[in-house]
Amino acid sequence: MTTIKTTCERCGDVELEPNDLALELDPTQESGVYLFTCPSCIVVQRRPANPRVVNVLLATGVSYEVITPSPIDDPITEAEIDAFASRLYSEEDLFRLLTP
Ligand SMILES: [Zn+2]
Fold first, then answer.
1. What's the 91 CA to ligand 1 centre distance in angstroms?
2. Tens digits of per-residue pLDDT, 28-75?
3. Whole-Å CA distances, 20 to 5, 7, 12, 42
4. Phi then psi for 86, rounded to 5 degrees?
5. pTM above 0.85?
6. Span from the CA of 10 to the centroid of ligand 1 (angstroms)
């Protein structure tokens, strides 16, 4: 059985099995976050996973879920609204804005 070493904020180094971890992947990036429950203090931890970590975890058989970034995590900025609004005024064919 593969052992994955990571660290708990409270307990320090801990060893987990692939079943103890879950990956959340961001479809817009090659990175994501991984979650695990510390075997000592039973606290769920959430850590960023860069592409290398993602690859290692996937290779060890960690289950994963693709997460669609929520608007709360990535709010539309005022600049984006302004840009959209100015395009609305300059764009003659509004339907073009709705097609990718
Ligand atoms: Zn712990």
1. 56
2. 887 899 999 999 999 999 999 999 999 999 999 999 999 876 666 667
3. 11, 13, 17, 11
4. -70, -30
5. no
6. 5
Distance 67 CA to ligand 1 centre (A): 26
Quick one: tokens of 64? 């994963």
Interior/surface letters 10-27, b for 16+ CB within 10 angstroms, e for the rest: eeeebebebebbbbebbe
Measured CA to CA, the distance from residue 57 to residue 1 in angstroms comes to 13
Rounded Cα distance, 95 and 99, in Å: 7
Q: Alpha-carbon Rg of the chain, whole angstroms?
A: 20
**How many A from CA of 7 to the centre of ligand 1?**
8
